């Protein structure tokens, strides 16, 4: 649920925009530093923290509404800084063998994504627990970490040719399942807040699918559009997992409603209802490809951005106790829309806010757990799922940690012993977002 730009647009100094895990905060990284904006009002948007001491921040991830942030700058793309911004102190830093493409956090784990590997840290002491090596090339850093403490799954691409998703349990440190979600390579993945559903989109960008976890069963299939392919930039569930929104390089933001079709829907006697009923009935007699298209769900609601081509992230979150669609762009704007939760349709733009207002590497040995390679193909009843039926002794459970032999082979840093971070303790990491009245 983030967008990273290696080259800022000419008319904006922003390098990064992102919503945090529960959409209670918006983070921006820029040439001058980073800012944190609490999201609790339609009419007002004021940052609670600004830091101009670290320039060229192109990754900034905040742990919910706490004071813990993870930062990466263009100047040092291999270095991760974990900071307590309210105290103005650094908790630790790590350097990796290649550029950091994404960082994901929940209250149990911190995950660092490189192009061909992922590092799983224990967020309480920042030690490396596990390394997933030799992943399929992932130059866009596509991955997602569930915000749920128990269902703390990690999703990342399992292939460069097709839209396979590897699901890894960051608590047990075991591979869970491989989902063959799309024919084309992945463009975006996202977990719902409970960690029980996964949304996926491919580079083609016409079909959005939702799968249940951990079994990988397909629950929903939505068609974003019929005419145009699109570059899907973001997928995001609402807090209650009833809605799923997606934005792309087109001017339309789509919202899908995740509800099961009623067993005996009331008969629609309008000419459109009769036409839709006829299409659904005839779909069973058509070739599989055409039948699938006719049975796919359509947008429940849509919102229009000022023009196409905006690089953006979206989310659905309650503002003043009413669900709103929020879209933040690298162009430097936050758009807030009203959603009709019952009727859907075209969303109304309520407010536009500006986001462009005037905000030596340590070395040493680190520790790692076992490493995993992508799961291999196996037969399964579901065309979307490939289960990991067996695990070797090396990957079935965490192994004794051993230092890296080559300092460029993994994460280096964190040599200063840390006391256990009390992630849930507001006295150590106090929330700084004002409470919603």
UniProtKB/TrEMBL annotation:
It is found in: Endomembrane system. It is a peripheral membrane protein. Its main location: membrane. SMART domains: WD40. One of its GO terms (cellular component) is endomembrane system. Residues 416-427 have a biased composition (Basic and acidic residues). WD repeats lie at residues 179-207. PROSITE patterns: WD_REPEATS_2. One of its GO terms (biological process) is protein localization to phagophore assembly site. Gene3D superfamilies: YVTN repeat-like/Quinoprotein amine dehydrogenase. Residues 358-437 are annotated as: Disordered. The keyword Cell cycle does not apply. The keyword Repeat applies. GO terms for molecular function: phosphatidylinositol-3-phosphate binding. Keywords: Autophagy, Lipid-binding, Membrane, Repeat, WD repeat. InterPro entries: PROPPIN, WD40/YVTN_repeat-like_dom_sf, WD40_repeat_dom_sf, WD40_rpt. Belongs to the WD repeat PROPPIN family. This is WD repeat domain phosphoinositide-interacting protein 2.
């Amino acid at each position: 649920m983030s967008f990273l730009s290696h080259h800022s647009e000419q008319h904006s100094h922003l390098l990064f925009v992102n919503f945090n895990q529960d959409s209670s905060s918006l983070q921006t990284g820029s040439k001058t530093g980073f800012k944190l904006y609490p999201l609790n009002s339609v009419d007002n948007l004021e940052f609670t923290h600004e830091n101009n001491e670290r320039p060229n921040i192109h990754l900034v991830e905040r742990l919910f509404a706490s004071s813990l942030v993870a930062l990466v700058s263009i100047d040092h793309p291999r270095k991760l800084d974990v900071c307590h911004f309210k105290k103005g102190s650094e908790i630790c830093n790590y350097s990796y063998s290649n550029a950091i493409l994404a960082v994901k956090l929940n209250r149990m784990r911190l995950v660092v994504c490189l192009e061909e590997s992922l590092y799983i840290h224990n967020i309480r002491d920042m030690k490396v627990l596990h390394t997933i090596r030799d992943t399929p090339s992932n130059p866009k850093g596509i991955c997602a970490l569930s915000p749920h403490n128990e269902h703390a799954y990690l999703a990342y691409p399992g292939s460069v040719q097709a839209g396979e998703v590897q699901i890894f349990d960051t608590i047990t440190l075991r591979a869970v399942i491989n989902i063959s979600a799309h024919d084309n390579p992945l463009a975006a993945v996202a977990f719902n807040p409970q960690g029980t559903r996964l949304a996926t989109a491919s580079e083609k960008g016409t079909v959005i699918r939702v799968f249940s976890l951990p079994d990988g069963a397909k629950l929903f299939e939505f068609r974003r559009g019929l005419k145009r392919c699109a570059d899907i930039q973001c997928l995001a569930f609402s807090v209650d997992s009833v809605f799923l929104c997606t934005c792309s390089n087109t001017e339309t933001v789509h919202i899908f409603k995740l509800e099961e079709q009623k067993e005996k829907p009331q008969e629609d006697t309008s000419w459109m209802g009769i036409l839709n009923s006829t299409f659904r009935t005839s779909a069973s007699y058509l070739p599989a490809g055409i039948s699938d298209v006719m049975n796919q769900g359509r947008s429940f609601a849509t919102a229009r951005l000022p023009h196409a081509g905006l690089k953006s992230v979206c989310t659905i979150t309650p503002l003043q106790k009413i669900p709103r669609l929020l879209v933040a762009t690298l162009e430097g704007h936050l758009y807030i829309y009203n959603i009709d939760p019952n009727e859907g349709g075209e969303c109304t733009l309520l407010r536009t806010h500006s986001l462009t207002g005037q905000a030596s590497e340590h070395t040493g040995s680190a520790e790692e757990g076992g490493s995993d390679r992508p799961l291999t193909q196996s037969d399964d009843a579901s065309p979307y799922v490939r289960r990991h039926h067996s695990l070797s002794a090396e990957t079935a459970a965490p192994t004794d940690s051993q230092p890296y032999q080559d300092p460029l082979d993994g994460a280096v840093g964190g040599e200063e012993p840390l006391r256990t971070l009390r992630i849930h303790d507001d006295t150590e990491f106090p929330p700084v977002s004002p409470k919603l009245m």
